[in-house]
Amino acid sequence: MGSGLAAGSVRARYLVYFQYLGTDFNGVAAVRGAQRAAGVQNYLEEAAEGLKSAVPVKFTISSRTDAGVHALSNAAHLDVQRRSGQAPFSPEVLTQALNTHLKHPAIRVLKAFRVPSDFHARYSATSRTYLYRLATGCPPHSPLSVFEQNRCWALPADSLDVAAMQEAAHHLLGTHDFSAFQSAGSPSPSSVRTLRRASVTPGPASPFLLPQESRRLRFWSLEFESQSFLYRQVRRMTAILVAVGLGTVTPAQVKAILESRDPLGKHQTRVAPAHGLFLKSVRYGGLEDLEAGSPACAQREYLRPETRGPKAGGLG
User: What's this protein's family per the entry (predicted)?
Assistant: First the structure.
């Protein structure tokens, strides 16, 4: 055996969901080498050392997020190879063990599932949803509440033309070449994506505001759903929709920008700040039933990985 493992050792693959506040991290991906910066993956793999796997545990992340971007729920798969005679960890024990060994308070493992050995957290995903939080009515020289800082984009404008933003968002729905909304460095050779949902709605009021702040501040939520996104696509779409809400760009111009396929045009250089963006969910066919309490469905055939083409990534 090339791996040198004792006969009878068992390898088990797990899908884990985890969340993090991205403020302290250089993105979700591991930072290799001697750099002082660290990604969320570095802490997860350090925590996995406590599992005492016969082979070092590596996390394969579903959706890469930039520095400062948060995740309500990201996902990854990992393999744990216990030594001969030891049964695989139950998902509950794995979740508890990872959380016990995590050394950063801004990361939490939510849950874990056993999945087939050829399941892939990135390529098997059928849907990814991003949430972007905006706050209006923020005076330029009056900082946002410390409890909301780095969790939304604070805008000095008192209001947004939400109807115009919704009209502009409608132009983005469907299958298009989104070249105009991608940043340089996108790893995908194809810029065609299918945007299934783009919504602009009033967000819930923050419970962390003083009375005088509650009277002037309003929160807004933008949500985008697709199987995958181009590099910084969500932040660029958000920036242009905010420009529409402020009246500096029209919905018709958004349609023209999309059709131009030009990422360097007059309005396309805008990128919304990272700290307002949250990866809200990553979904897999069949796991909705499993989350409702049916443990057998993780082994169903429709959880097998889909064709691993260039459109299978997930970058917001």
Answer: Belongs to the tRNA pseudouridine synthase TruA family.
pLDDT along the chain (316 residues), means of 10: 53 97 95 81 97 96 96 98 91 98 97 96 97 94 88 95 98 97 84 97 92 90 97 96 97 96 85 97 77 39 39 56
Residue range of the domain that includes 29: 11-123
Tell me, yes or no, if 79 is annotated catalytic.
no
- On whether both 63 and 141 belong to a single domain, the answer is no
Q: Quote the CA–CA distance of 154 and 40 in Å, as a whole number.
A: 25
Are both 110 and 145 inside the same structural domain? no
pTM of this structure: 0.88
**297 vs 35, 293, 302, 304, CA distance in Å?**
41, 9, 9, 12
- Give the active site residue among 66, 158, 161, 177: 66
Q: How many domains, in total, are found in the chain?
A: 2
Residue 151, domain CATH: 3.30.70.660
What values do phi and psi take at 78, rounded to 5?
-150, 155
Distance CA 252, CA 249 (A): 8
